[in-house]
């Protein structure tokens, strides 16, 4: 199974500046380019789910974020609740090296610079997990610097 990788460099500027951290500018622009609407998205190293919330609002997608840090998961859970998106966005405490906390198959898997911080072996392990979580025609979007 092939993993389709779209690598975008630099900042791509677009809408929703008030809701989007810098990562979301790139995600928003890229998802506009791939015509994403109404699909299932996995966000790696999701932190506080700010970008997932913004994506859900902008593109009417369902988003699952995976985050290892329990404090970030707690904040993300509150952010999702405050946005009223409990049925559309969820955060899962888990490890991007194993993906065992996630059973779904996704149309898109998104990652920001997390891959650039890993060893070659770790990158391979993460990409194998991504491949296993993507639907047959799914896409992996990596936003690196």
Give the helix/strand layout:
Blueprint: E1 5-8, H1 22-33, E2 40-44, H2 50-59, E3 62-67, H3 70-83, E4 89-93, E5 106-111, H4 120-133, E6 134-143
Parallel strand pairs: 1-6, 2-3, 2-5, 3-4, 5-6
Describe this structure in words.
- With 145 residues, the protein is an alpha/beta fold.
- It has one domain: Vaccinia Virus protein VP39 (Rossmann fold, 3-Layer(aba) Sandwich), CATH 3.40.50.150.
- Helix content is 34%, strand content 25%.
- Strand 5 (106-111), helix 4 (120-133) and strand 6 form a beta-alpha-beta unit.
- Helix 1 (22-33) packs parallel to helix 2.
For the structure shown, list the relevant keywords:
alpha/beta, Rossmann fold, six-stranded parallel beta sheet, 4 helices, globular, disordered N terminus
**Large-scale geometry:** globular
CATH class equals Alpha Beta
Record field, number of beta strands:
6
**Main sheet specs:** 6 strands, parallel
What is the compact description of this entry?
With 145 residues, the chain is an alpha/beta fold. It has four helices and six strands, in the order E-H-E-H-E-H-E-E-H-E.
């Amino acid at each position: 199974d092939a993993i389709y990788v779209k690598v975008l460099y630099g900042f791509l500027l677009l809408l929703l500046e008030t809701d989007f951290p810098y990562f979301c500018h790139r995600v928003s622009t890229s998802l506009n380019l791939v015509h994403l609407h109404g699909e299932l998205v996995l966000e790696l190293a999701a932190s506080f789910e700010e970008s997932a919330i913004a994506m859900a609002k902008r593109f009417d997608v369902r988003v699952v974020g995976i985050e290892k840090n329990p404090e970030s998961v707690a904040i993300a859970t509150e952010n999702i609740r405050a946005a009223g998106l409990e049925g559309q966005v969820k955060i899962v405490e888990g490890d991007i090296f194993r993906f065992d906390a996630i059973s779904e198959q996704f149309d898109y898997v998104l990652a920001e610079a997390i891959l650039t911080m890993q060893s070659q072996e770790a990158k391979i392990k993460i990409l194998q997990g991504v491949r296993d979580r993507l639907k047959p025609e799914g896409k992996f979007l990596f936003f690196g610097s």
